[in-house]
Design brief:
The complex is a heterotrimer of chains A (118), B (171) and C (181).
Chain A: H1 12-17, H2 25-28, H3 33-39, H4 44-71, H5 75-93
Helix pairs in contact in A: 4-5
Chain B: H1 2-31, E1 37-39, E2 54-58, E3 69-72, E4 81-92, E5 98-105, E6 124-125, H2 126-129, E7 130-138, H3 143-150, H4 152-169
Antiparallel strand pairs in B: 1-2, 2-7, 3-4, 3-7, 4-5, 5-6
Helix pairs in contact in B: 3-4
Chain C: H1 4-36, E1 44-56, E2 69-81, E3 90-101, E4 110-119, E5 126-133, E6 138-139, E7 149-160, E8 163-164, E9 166-169, E10 174-177
The chains are: A mainly alpha (118), B alpha+beta (171), C alpha+beta (181).
Chain lengths: 118, 171, 181
């Protein structure tokens, strides 16, 4: 009996990551804990949140910066405000805060033997 | 398998480079200028232009107007200069063609550019020497290019960053 | 976005894109405001304009091969207020006193600058000078001005913080004649 083991490539980075190894070994042994901590990985719901925060905050910041500079008749205020918004967004989105890791991916349990079918 | 991957990556890189090149040359065609976007290298036009500012050139005007900021290159000297037109005259050649002669001066310079021109000329020729007039301006964005070409630490730093990024993405 | 590096890349990418959009919006707003402000008719009072000439023989005064070249200098009174040109996107104003005189070649003639000034702030936009001497000794391509009539006017150039450069001229020209040779 053939048993087809199907897997979907969610993120190309995941796939190219382990191209040299057998295609299913990523599922059975993900990155060791210390390495993924340095990489600052966050789960998918967290990525969605981070994406939304950057887009909304920076767009909002652009509009506010424009109004600030235009109404105060000084373009330097636009530059400063927009830079401040950039730093704010960076400080919210770049570090892997715990609220980005609330929905971790549940991997399938490890199997002792994996049947690969060509 | 590995060689194929490398070749595909090389092909992607070639695509990116040639697209950028096409865009650059296309812009040069539209503006009729050899280098449609220039970075300000000297402080001779301060406080209007600072080093690192980006200028957008246009070269389709038949005659340059007085007060325009032009980028010109003197024959024999490879450095383009960005200065303002101080005086303009029109003369007719022996072959009945009208030439526009210009005298330029940097805002921050005490005297005009007479000493910068070619040995026998007292003026610039609009058709031969002028690369374009400055129509639009973007502040400070080009400072990165100045840092890279002039500062050896920046050069090493950039090379280091590029090497690091190629190593990390390949895992 | 799962990696720190990916988040940095994505963030800086988006930030750069929005910065460029902000520059474009500023440029468009500047163009519209220049159009609406009717900056084409700012009055300027030019009076007591006197042009004097003398002969010079050195190359730095336009002399070719030691032949005498007629050089001219100007003396003028100027009163104008360029404050309406200063908006949020104005980095500096460059003003030039230009004389335009006819030549045999072109309809609009030759244009020469006798004096220029840089105005960096709105509080200096009010220019009021009396018996001001021109900065430059001006010569023509030909050897002499031959007593031509010149129109002296004041041109300005607005340098923005971002966007297109604007050029214009004040209302208030004056006709002067070069002294007869």
């Amino acid at each position: 009996m053939h048993s087809k083991f199907r897997w979907v490539c969610v993120d190309t980075q995941f796939c190219t990551h382990h191209q040299n190894l057998s295609p299913f070994s990523y599922i059975s042994n993900p990155s060791p804990m210390s390495f993924s901590y340095l990489e600052g990985n966050i789960d998918f719901k967290g990525q969605e949140l981070a994406n939304r925060i950057t887009k909304k905050l920076i767009t909002f910041g652009a509009i506010i910066s424009f109004l600030v500079g235009f109404l105060s008749d000084n373009i330097l205020y636009t530059v400063y405000t927009f830079a401040a918004f950039g730093l704010l967004t960076a400080s919210l989105v770049i570090p892997p805060f715990s609220f980005y890791k609330k929905n971790p991916v549940t991997w399938l349990p490890k199997k002792s033997k994996i049947e690969i079918q060509h | 398998m590995n060689i194929r991957q490398q070749l595909v990556q090389l092909l992607n890189l070639a695509m990116v480079l040639s697209t950028a090149f096409m865009f650059w040359k296309g812009l040069g065609l539209v503006t009729n200028s050899n280098s449609p976007i220039v970075v300000v290298l000297s402080g001779s036009m301060e406080p209007a232009f600072q080093r690192g500012d980006i200028l957008f050139l246009w070269n389709r005007d038949k005659y340059v107007d007085i007060g325009d900021v032009v980028v010109y290159e003197v024959k024999g000297k490879p450095i383009p200069i960005v200065h303002r037109v101080l005086r303009e005259h029109k003369v007719t050649n022996k072959d009945r063609k009208v030439r526009q002669l210009l005298l330029t001066k940097g805002d921050n310079n005490p005297t005009d550019d007479l000493s910068l021109y070619a040995h026998k000329s007292n003026y610039l020729d609009r058709d031969e020497d002028v690369l374009g007039t400055v129509k639009a301006y973007l502040p400070k964005v080009g400072y990165v290019t100045i840092l890279i070409t002039e500062n050896k630490y920046a050069k090493l730093g950039l090379l280091g960053l590029m090497a690091l990024s190629t190593l990390l993405t390949r895992e | 976005m799962f990696n720190i590096i990916q988040r940095i890349q994505s963030l800086s990418n988006f930030y750069l894109t929005v910065s460029i959009l902000l520059c474009i919006v500023t440029t468009v707003v500047s163009i519209i405001s220049m159009f609406l402000d009717e900056t084409s008719s700012i009055p300027a009072q030019l009076s007591n304009v006197v042009i004097s000439t003398n002969l010079k023989y050195s190359r730095s005064f336009g002399s070719v091969g030691g032949r005498p070249k007629e050089n001219s200098k100007i003396l003028f009174d100027l009163d104008m207020d360029l404050a309406p040109l200063f908006n949020w996107n104005t980095k500096q104003l460059f003003v030039q006193l230009v004389a335009e005189y006819p030549t045999s070649v072109a309809d609009d003639g030759a244009k020469v600058t006798y004096w220029d000034s840089i105005i960096t702030e709105k509080k200096y936009a009010r220019v009021h000078v009396n018996k001001q001497r021109g900065k430059y000794s001006v010569w023509d391509v030909s050897d002499s001005f031959q007593g031509r009539n010149a129109t002296v006017k004041l041109k300005w150039n607005l340098q923005p913080y971002v966007g297109f450069l604007f050029f214009g001229q004040t209302k208030g020209e004056i006709e002067v004649a070069y002294p007869a040779t």
